Amino acid sequence: MAKIEISRRFKRPVSSKNFIPEIDGLRFFAIFTVFLLHLNNYVGRSLNYDYYEGVRDVNSWSWFINRSGLGVEVFFAISGFIISLPFLKHYVLLSKKPSISTYFYRRLTRLEIPFLISCILFYIGYLYSYDKDFGKEIGHFFATITYTHEFFYGKWAPFNPVTWSLEVEIQFYIVAPLLLKLIFKPKSEIISFLIFLFFLSVPLIFRQYFYELLKSYHLHMSILIFLPYFLIGIVVAFLYIKYPSFFKKKNIIWDIIGVSSIYSLFYFAWRANQSYFCLSLFLFFISTFKGVLLNKIFNIKGIFLVGGMCYTLYLLHYPLIHFFGSFTLKIINSNNFITSYIFQLILISPFILGSCICYYLLIEKPCMDKNWPNKLHNKIKKCLNIKR
Fold first, then answer.
1. Which of 309, 319, 303, 300 has its CA nearest to residue 361?
2. DSSP code of 364?
3. What is the distance between the alpha carbons of residues 163 and 165, in angstroms, rounded to a whole number?
4. 2 CB contacts (<8 Å, ≥6 apart)?
């Protein structure tokens, strides 16, 4: 009974009908790999270690760890899957058309409060820790909370660099309804495929041949580059709705494909040509549903529960690594980088997870209730009436 109660407390408030554990399992994979990368970078800088050394040597630690940022692209694919589901149900299954106003309102109420609170906390911590001038740095704060920091500055926000990917997410949320309409509204499947191919190929061409040009206009960290990864999620969502029986059948062959895809994701992560990376991402996504062992792993309760907290983990982990690391590095500071990294991973992880659990339960999870603004309004109204 205690285990069931704990599970209910941490599980996202989603109906059993709409809950897809494999997606939260994928979220765990994404945030875990990104966490490994950022911890590596922090420990490396703290020890004056060149953590890019040997990055092209497939047998080196650097080759693996510096490609762990691919978790961001996995996040984008997950967003493409989740965001497109209600729209695809309308276009493919002819269900009720989603309300655009409700769609944007839900994005706002679900994401904004946890994001704003984290920005305020870390901005204050940043000013204090680095003795920064409030007036000179305030532009970074406002650009971050309006999701325009990359456009204005062309670089990461100094008090929480990971927010650049949330800017890309927001751009996708804005264009997603129109994008899905353009792709799936046409009655001709050939036309739909050609439109999809256009939106998939153009960003890949931009990345391979015009990256420096886009960078000069601060567009290299925008949807113009990262759209293909969202499209991968959309394709998987389409197949998930169109062919549900396909996803229910498991086969060990898909475990082999999935493991191979994980390796190829790392292998192609830094390539200018991202076509093979997109293919690997697609196969990996499918394998989490179709593989016998992979599906069991991604359905482990501890994994999908932590994956369900990924937004909080995403928002908090980078600054918390620096905060807790300032203490743990004084405890264990080995001359061997990998040894030091492993010790820091063991020491820091429980503190970061514990902090994120508290933030998730107190801040993020209440915002998952789509009716929380109305409930809050009623409570305030009730309190005011009592005082009168």
1. 309
2. I
3. 5
4. none
- 19-56: burial string, b at 16+ Cβ within 10 Å, e else: ebbbbbbbbbbbbbbbbbbbbbbbbbeebebebeeebe
What's the whole-model pTM score?
A: 0.94
Give the mean model confidence (pLDDT) for residues 144-151.
96
**C-alpha distances in Å from residue 120, one per residue of 3, 70, 126, 160, 167:** 35, 28, 10, 11, 17
Q: Is residue 247 within 8 Å of 288, Cβ to Cβ?
A: no
Rounded to the nearest angstrom, the gap between the alpha carbon of residue 178 and the centroid of all alpha carbons in its chain is 22
Please name which of 114, 207, 125 lies closest in space to residue 163, comparing C-alpha atoms.
114
Percent with pLDDT over 90 in the chain: 75
Look-up of token digits 């599906």: 295
Cite the beta strand spans of the chain per DSSP E: none
Residue 372 in this model has a pLDDT that exceeds 70 = yes
Count of CA atoms in the C-beta half-sphere (13 A) of 5: 2
What are the Cα distances from residue 384, in Å, to 315, 357, 373, 381?
34, 32, 16, 5
Average of per-residue pLDDT values in the chain: 91
